[in-house]
Amino acid sequence: MTHIAIAEQLDDSHEPGGFVTKYIWSQDHKVIAIQYAITAIFVGLIALVLSAIMRLQLGFPDSFSFIDPSSYLQFVTMHGMIMVIYLLTALLLGGFGNYLIPLMIGARDMVFPYLNMLSYWTYLLSVIVLICSFFVTGGPTGAGWTLYPPQAILQGTPGADKGIILMLVSLAIFIVAFTMGGLNYVTTIFQARAKGMTLMRMPLTLWGILTATILGLLAFPALLVSAIMMLFDMLLATSFFMPAIVSLGDNLAYTGGSPILFQHLFWFFGHPEVYIVALPAFGMVSDVIATHARKNIFGYRMMVWAIVAIGGLSFVVWAHHMYVSGMNPYFGFFFATTTLIIAIPTALKVYNWVLTLWRGNIHLTVPMLFAIGFIFTFTHGGLTGLWLGNVVVDLPLSDTYFVVAHFHMVMGVSPVMVLFAAIYHWYPKITGRYFHQGMGKFHFWLTFLGTYAIYLPMHYLGFLGVPRRYFAIGDSNFIPDSAQTLNASITVSAIIVGIVQLIFIYNVIWSLKYGKKAPANPWGATSLEWQTPDTPPKHGNWGAKLPVVHRWAYDFSVPGAESDFIPQNMTDSEVTWVSGQPPQDREKT
Amino acid sequence: MAIAIVILILILVTVIFHFLSPWWFTPIASNWTSIDTTINVTLWVTGFVFIIVNLFLAYAVYRFRYNKNRRADYEPENKKLEGWLTLVTTVGVAAMLAPGLVVWADFVAVPEDADEFEVVGQQWSWSFRFPGKDKVLGKVDTRLISAENPFGLSLSDPFGKDDILVNSNQLHLPINQPVKVLQRSKDVLHNFAVPQFRVKMDLVPGLTSYFWFTPTKLGDYEIFCQELCGFAHYLMRGKITVGSLAEHQQWLTQYPTFAQTQNQPKGDLIAGKKHFQNCVACHGDQGAGNSALNSPRIAGLSQWYIKRQLSYFKDKIRGNKTDDTFGLQMASMMATLPDETAINDVAAYIESLTTIVAKEDLTTLTNATDLSKGKALYSNCRYCHGENGQGNYILNAPNIAGQYDWYLKRQIANFQNRLRGTHQGDLYGNQMVLMARLLHSEQDIDDVSAYISNLPTTVTKTSNQQQLK
Asked: What is the 3-state secondary structure (H, E, C) of A338-377?
């Protein structure tokens, strides 16, 4: 019992004093979360601009003299890398993970607040190193976000002198930051849960974040070692990934290395990475849907096991990215099978989301709109995954625009939909104010319809066989001119979607000052973060007393209860029952 | 409410777009119709699920939209429903996976009667090797690759002697004959992809990858590199012609065996000099060129480059458009070179010339040119033509340093205006057609031309020069 007593105490040793300890060198998980979020959104905006430049070249080739094949590949690479690692991973885990974990489990903070602070500043360092690569001679690497050797470190690729070094170093630093944060998240969830908060009572957001963090802790080391090995190949003339090579006419001294080894290591990280992004999104969207539909999440236990199963399976599907890589083709049987198996728990999650809506009482708030948008885009992106996972279907489609369209639907648009849902959903708790509804809806409609206008047609360029990562298509006897028209229309949609994000940024900033004041629990949510004594929560989150949990996170519209939600920290006797006492036949959770 | 209608509309739009889209798989030209069948099965299964799930979503949102007099149901789980959904999903997944794996089993099992040939990838071109009469490809080693032995064949392996080396990005295959494609790369990853054949595979340095197919339809197809291979990835194209077996054998005879490439005549400089007398009037007796006569400097240009360009002029691959006045003029001169030997000899002689043209004669462009701007623009050229414009045999890129700027300008314009490089017999011209588009204005062309002509001419000592002394 001693550890509970310790947790109960308000530890003021890292209580913020002045501005600097409160907002800069802060050890408060909520401040660190916001630091993570602002940094991630900032680099995300850079990546968004890069994608717009790429689209300009693809939609209107030969029109812009500041885009040449080198800069095009550099923009492609940095766009992908920033979006996947420095935006999505950082915002979902560093941002939302940090903000929500202690609040949702009923803790005062992370268990290692100092480590948490260090994690953010290390992350910021990795971002600075990454941005520096834009300013070195030769510019950032243009090797594609997968950084495949040998080309990543050979002269035929832009940024092969300095850009690639900074990229690899930045990744290594990022992984250090992630490891500090990740160990913290896992330990906190396992060790610091409030009394009564059993694992099977946790909101799905926490299950998503927990599983994703464990995946990250297991997967990122593979990326770390491959980054270090590639640096060695480049700087110390080792040959981990480098066989004998004649590069642009020069016989290089490498011998005996394997480029495919890198791909295995990269995708051993890279595939779980998809779920590192997807699982927190799955969790958060579940909670948004349940709250705004006023209904418990359907099949909670199935949802938890699906998250865990997807997490586990994600480690045995990696080579589906490598069907045409030249690896032993017999691997195709194994990886196609595992990949299609992973579709089953994923499909069940989709069913459970729509079944949660069924017989709900759906408030079409802005977060809910984004959540519904997510179900639609994720269904689309998930189903095209079945195409690419099925090894023979992958043969014609691999490395075409179909792949680009698929992964943007499934791990670009979909998680971003959830991020917007989550930002709008938790905004009143984080800031104490409502965001502007009208701007939020406008943002939703243009983003939702705009992204579909970008990616639906893009699949069809892939069917046709248009290769990805091409600076220009040029003349071709089977790609009709109409494909160029299609490309132009995709570009127009992309630019519109890009501009619309400014409205989101404006809304977030405007509402900080001018937004309507929000009550502590504006959506009538059950989970603990909405039950804090102060909004926004103060340092230590819970005032004098930690909450005690009496029920699962989804007691919405409980039969017999007067209110349509019962917070997790409310006992049965505190609930106002219509009949005066709780119904006897009620299933206990 | 609006969202339910919009989702309904999006489902409709998706279906209509699918059926009206003119963008769909190219007509198949190989044996892999089973892949198309699997794609169709996948399309129907996933399309069905997409429609059903989203119809359900739209209906649920519409039917259970907020009503202050209604309360949501309380139903934590429904084991039976969840069980059924798991089962149905598993069946659907199996329906796609099973045919997929059956087809994959065909894909990994190469038929015994498949003919082997080799695809060799390098930044940013293709070449091919056929096994010759003995039907066995000789041993290769990347470390043996050189300008004289671009395929890196082992000199000691007898099986390699009769290998036919197609040092060109154009391939010919016989119809209805299964082929096993053996692939290797000299430098980075590449991917040999022909959309109409449906199948593709990476080329990986350090190992030999393979796949197989049977071409089933006559015609010309494009080869795309579909694995990012650096700066000019998008220019790594090739062509496959599928024809009859007789045509294929005829095509093969155009290309030398490895043994022949090792014993190629160096070029007779005495004979070359004699032929060169026909060139003197315009290009000067030292090949220095002449601005007044619109003739470029040719002294010291590599024999392989001169040979290729002269054959292009001869075969009307270059200098075949009425707007290309000077190209036509050059093509008409080709009558003075009767055959390949003559071309080889004169090319050897031209390579042996060592004149360097004075700098002030090289730059005549009237537009004020900005050399630093030219240098920046040249960064796109240096990958192939080299930091100093010295050219690179491996990349098929000629020496351009110290060329007259007006000549460079005209050639860039010719590439842009499709007067050069677009003939299907021009192996690498198409790369320049696309590269020339990076220069967006006449000023850009002037700047980069001036920069190149200001690069110091380096005359590398070649065997031809030694021989002349």
From this structure: HHHHHHHHHHHHHHHHHHHHCCCCECCCHHHHHHHHHHHH
Q: Which residues in chain B have their CB less than 8 angstroms from residue A476's CB? A: 222
Bridge pairing between strands B237-243 and B219-225 = antiparallel
Nearest Cα residue in chain B from A72: B231
**Contact yes or no for A379 and B90 at CB 8 A:** no
Per-residue pLDDT, averaged over A409-424, amounts to: 96
Any idea which fold B269-468 has?
Cytochrome Bc1 Complex; Chain D, domain 2 (1.10.760)
- Which residues make up the CATH 1.10.760.10 domain(s) of chain B? 269-468
Tell me which chain B residue has its CA closest to the CA of residue A160. Answer: B230
- How many angstroms separate the CA atoms of A30 and B14, rounded? 42
The answer as to CATH 1.10.3210.10 being correct for domain B115-256 is: no
User: Alpha-carbon distance A586 to A251, whole Å?
Assistant: 76
Q: Which of A498-512, B229-243, B364-378 has the lowest mean pLDDT?
A: B364-378
Going by C-alpha positions, the residue among B244, B156, B28, B77 that lies closest to residue A298 is B77
**Phi and psi based region of residue A3 (left: phi greater than 0; alpha: psi -120 to 50; beta: remaining):** alpha
Place of tokens 């007691």: A555
Written as one string, the DSSP assignment of B302-320 is -HHHHHHHHHHHHTTSSS-
**Residue limits of CATH 2.60.40.420 in chain B:** 115-256
CA distance A99 to A530: 12
Residues within 8 A of B (CB atoms), A 475-514 only: 475-478, 480, 482-483, 486
Task: Say if residues B54 and A452 touch (Cβ distance below 8 Å).
Answer: no
> What are the helix (H) ranges across B64-196?
79-108
Distance CA A257, CA B188 (A): 12
Residue A587 has pLDDT above 80, yes or no: no
HEC string of B217-268 equals CCEEEEEEECCCCCCCHHHCEEEEEEECHHHHHHHHHCCCEHHHHHCCCCCC
Neighbours of A589 (CB within 10 A): 14
Predicted confidence (pLDDT) at residue A472 exceeds the cutoff of 50: yes
Residue A249: pLDDT band by 50, 70, 90 thresholds?
confident
Name residue, tokens 């190629």: B264
Residue A322's nearest CA partner among A227, A240, A399 is: A399
What distance in Å separates residue B440's CA from the closest CA in chain A?
A: 6
* ipTM score for this prediction: 0.93
Using an 8 Å Cβ cutoff, are A377 and A309 in contact? no
* β-pair type (B209-213, B190-193): unpaired
Is the pTM higher than 0.90? The answer reads: yes
Would you call A453 an interface residue with chain B, using a CB distance cutoff of 8 Å? no
Q: Are the CB atoms for B241 and B425 separated by under 8 Å?
A: no
- Confidence grade of residue A1 (pLDDT, cut at 50, 70, 90): very low
Q: Is the bond preceding A150 in cis, omega lying within 30 degrees of 0? A: yes
Of A356, A389, A361, give the one whose Cα is nearest residue A374: A356
Give the minimum alpha-carbon distance from A114 to chain B in angstroms, rounded to a whole number: 40
